[in-house]
Amino acid sequence: MLQAIGLTSTPRRHLPPMVDDLTFEARPGDVTALLGAPGSGKTTALRLMLELETGRGVTYFRGRPLHTIAGPAREVGALLGAVPGHPARTARGQLRMLCAAAGVPVTRADDMLDVVGIAALRDTRLGTLSLGMDRRLGLAAALLGDPHTLLLDDPARGLSPRENSWLFGLLRAHAAHGGTVLYTTADPKEAARTADRVVTIDRGRLVADQDVAEFARTRLRPRVAVRTPHAARLATVVGREARAARRSVEVVTEGGGRLSVYGSSCAEIGETAFRHGILVHQLAQEIGDAGPATTPHATATTRTPTTRTPITRTPATPVPGVPATASAPPAPADTGLRGPGEPSRATRGTPGPSLPSRRAPLQPLQPLRYELRRLLGVRTTHVIVAAVLVVSAALSAILAQTGRTPLPSLLAAWPGPLPLPPAALAAGLLGALSFGEEFRYPALAAAGGTVPRRLGLLLAKLTVSAVTALLIGCAVVVLDAQVLWLLYGAEPLPLPENLVSLSTSWTGLLIGCAWSGLLAAGIFRRTDAGVAAVLAVPMVVVPLVQKAFADASGRSVAGLPIRLRELMWVQWPYEVDRWLLAGLRMLVQPVGTALALSFSVLLCTYLFIGLRGRARW
Predict the structure, then answer these.
(1) 572-609 pLDDT per residue, tens
(2) How far is CA 6 from the centre of its chain?
(3) What is the Rg, in whole angstroms, of the alpha carbon atoms belonging to the chain?
(4) Can you tell me the distance from the alpha carbon of 402 to that of 235, in angstroms, rounded to the nearest whole number?
């Protein structure tokens, strides 16, 4: 059961809140429609339930707030607008990436593509999907974790009647197996046709909470839709005859030669128009919207069951190109995620409000798997790495031709005028993209909170970006050495005497640039901010550090490893002393000090700004 209690959004200056003290519930086994006009606060209400927006109130999912659930994607499936994914990623790649985040097998992605009927489009990129296929992919993403509750924001917007019928057939099948479904809509007729219960809101406040039969009786009423070039004349005649016959007939002029007549029939309107010689272009019986209920408080608190009157529902007609089983899936939320001996939702019954989660806790490697799939799922990463290798090889060959560049700079392809070598720039760019694209295409936002609140995801991004930077650096050094050997000499290049110090400095430079770009992009939520932070280290921070320590008296740290060895109980190998001393010497250099200072400032800022909320992972 879903229980929303006192949801209130944070009001803007001089404006009322979009959602104001909204309280209602959605029951398992039912499809509940959250009805309201555009701008009434439906989307804001869903974002408050998912804790994607700040405000007051609480939402219980089977008796537990979302932030206390170990795997939010396994309890709640959400679809807010279009699929939030990189347009160059394939449909299958998007779902496999989200499988890693939800902690479910990657085979679940193919299963869900079959369920929603787009298995043939698994290799199609998100940017080329039509609106209907995009909505199907979003529903597949919402169903990945086998959630008990589905939250959908206007899922039928822009869909054809057949796709609309298929969509609500799938939602009804999910509810029939014990799930809870809540979707928003602005169409009262759609709510009466597809929902079991209708919650009506207006300006963020609850207007009515009704069974669909009572909603149809109090909110909808039959009308005669008339289109005629003599609308004003026909309205006058119908009104005059109704008064003469002492009948309650309401005529509403809608403009464009259209009339809506309540309390009459097509036969009566047609006969009236014939008697007075009025030309009629259209005459049809429809279901009209009577507007919000006039007694919101009495209706909202009514819980007495009513006798359901027959409501015409759209049949689940098949969609061309969709398998016949997709129009009425047997169990879309029960496709292989139950444990051994665990009953299906159909036999599980309605869980109590304090039922503990039946899911296993999330594994620590889930964020790491997600980050690897995110990194390797688009061509941008491969293009950047290939460009860096080509540019580095070309620069190394050009610098070797002059004969005045030392060997370390040749291997790193780092000419003097450049603030950073190409490998460090690429590491910083990939780090910035890892968080900048996360906010531009928030793949995780709809399912369990905003990205910067996840400490585990931050650690995964730091780890993956560091490993990627080291791999790029090693590849650049090896490729440049091979190019130099191929072009200028048959003998292998000599190893520098200070190889340990150079290796440590190269490693620190690459990882520092990658982490600086990542954290800056996470703070400012922009990729270009991360790139700017990477470039600011050698161009701004290093000169400031050099100026600050220009007159400082130098002290040697050569004896620090020996003194540490005397203080420690565990004796490490003497080779560790060389690496430790090389790292200390790197830190006391202007570039090392600037990188350490920049990284410390960015990390503290990120922890203060991004991790103030509740951690998800």
Answers:
(1) 666 666 656 655 555 556 666 677 778 788 888 877 77
(2) 25
(3) 32
(4) 93
